[in-house]
Amino acid sequence: MAAISPVHPGAGVNGADHRNSRRVAVVERDPNLRQQIQHSLLTRQFAIVECANATALYRNLLSAPCDIAVIASDLPDDNPRNVALHLRQHSDIGIIVLDAEAGYGGQSDGYHEIADACFRKPVDLDGLATVVTAMHSLQHHMRALPTRSGGGQPEWELALDGWTLRTPDGASIDLSAPERSVLLRLVNTGAGGHPVSHDSLIGSLTNDVYDFDPHRLEMLIYRLRKKVALMSPLPLPLRAVRGMGYLCTIVRANG
């Protein structure tokens, strides 16, 4: 499987296409549906990369990075779940799955943990375009976040009960039960600047570490970053430590 270059806004084949930061890959075997999606997104000023299969997607991403990939669940050459996991591991690309088996409202048990959104077929084109636009705006916001200076800044605080994360600029972010469990483990086990292992963090979510898909942890952290970005211009002080786990500088509130 070809390696995928990270997504960089404004970087194209020759570095000159100013629309590359609005590039969307549409991976769908049905040419008629691809054309319908393309027409809908073109009205929102997105540039479209049409791909009939996963192989075409990988080939295009090597030379034309995309911000978002819209992936059908019935690809002819690869399991779309594998495609989504590969994209998640090697890029910060937004992922939308088109699933004929999804419930009404886009609920899909097979993809909700690895995709940012899921649409039932036949596709609501207006709804898809709206989600793509919102996802791109969030990506643009997150990439433009200033680098936090450590000197003299108030600290990020996790409330004593663990249900609220408070940012240095005063925002309060309500946490879900899984987010609370992971942050409590990070704050308690990682006190003093020690990385917390993936297994330890997974252990905060389940009693059976070996039967737990580690990509669920990655998605939880990915979505937590996005939640924080909607509430504060400050980036979540949580970083991956290669081969070890995660390191965070959030502290426990005193009271």
From TrEMBL:
Give the matching Pfam families: Trans_reg_C
Would you kindly state one Gene Ontology biological process term found in this protein's UniProt entry?
phosphorelay signal transduction system
Report the superkingdom from the record.
Bacteria
Disordered: annotated span: 1-20
Give the annotated DNA-binding region, as residue ranges.
Answer: 145-250
Instruction: Cite the entry's keywords alphabetically.
Output: DNA-binding
Which segments constitute the OmpR/PhoB-type domain? 145-250
Please report the stretch or stretches of sequence annotated as the Response regulatory domain: 23-136
Protein name, please? Answer: Two-component system response regulator
